[in-house]
Amino acid sequence: MTAAELTEAVDAGGLLPPDQPVIVMASGGRDSTCLLDVAVRLLGPDRVTALHLNYGLREDSDGDEEHCRELCRRLGVALETRRPQRPEGPGNLQSWARESRYAAAAELAVPAEARIATGHTADDQVETILYRLASSPSRRALLGMRAEDGRLVRPLLGLTRADTTAYCEERGLAWRDDSSNDDGAYARNRVRHGLIPALAEVHPAAAANVLRTAELLRDEAAVLDELVAEEIGANGAGPGRISLQRLAELPPALRRLVVQRLADRAAGRPVAGAARHAEEVAGLTRGGSAIDLGSGVRAVLENGFVRAELVSRP
What we know:
Blueprint: H1 3-13, E1 22-25, H2 30-43, E2 48-53, H3 61-75, E3 78-82, H4 93-112, E4 115-117, H5 122-135, H6 139-143, E5 148-149, E6 152-153, H7 161-171, H8 187-202, H9 206-231, E7 242-243, H10 244-249, H11 252-267, H12 278-282, H13 284-287, E8 290-294, E9 297-302, E10 305-310
Parallel strand pairs: 1-2, 1-4, 2-3, 4-6
Antiparallel strand pairs: 5-6, 7-10, 8-9, 9-10
Helix pairs in contact: 2-7, 5-8, 5-9, 9-11
């Protein structure tokens, strides 16, 4: 794929409309470097802002920041940098870094009514699906990342890491390789360097088959989502509620989806594992008037109707 073909593919995807500014998450790697250059070519430098977070976790972290600064000078793009302070004590380092990135991006994007673009590729999609499949027993694990999720867009999700590499080489764009991507201490790296090559030995089209399966499941998930939406708020229940009687009548699979949707809506984000409590929620009259769904969300029974509410953040 040539640089022109890649740019046309991103443009055809419609995730970077010319009438809306964009915040590009810039790590300095090949994927974000490719995305930043494509965004400038499609929108012009005045509508693009790059955001780089320097976590200070590696000896070459400052080098990554300087690389992004020089790249933005070359492209005529404004660069915003952040240096978040890692919290003390134990915790998931990658989760903290991810939350810091998206919080900083939202801080810039909301006032400007801008989109937030990340450089995730099809390779990242495969890794995400396999990682979630191993670590998260839920339907959502198999659906992968969405190309568009609110303000967040992933314009390169249909392209491969090889495509972005070829783009940068053709355009004469240098990039930085993150040495931590080879660290086997991180589970996602073990998926990339161990599991995916092993699956390729089983079948050469393993990665493509994972992507195709996720695509089919997303289509089917859209149908299920419509069924869930029809149940919530129906029969006079009001928005965001369902009658306890109707919840108990639903097939177990649909009941789980309804409870998950109620919890996600209340929290404003996915509530991992809420669906596991569906049977308990359906039996609320026997076990009380409320039940904890996790992540600071609970299901409440009021006047024969079930709703979910956010009690506290975990």
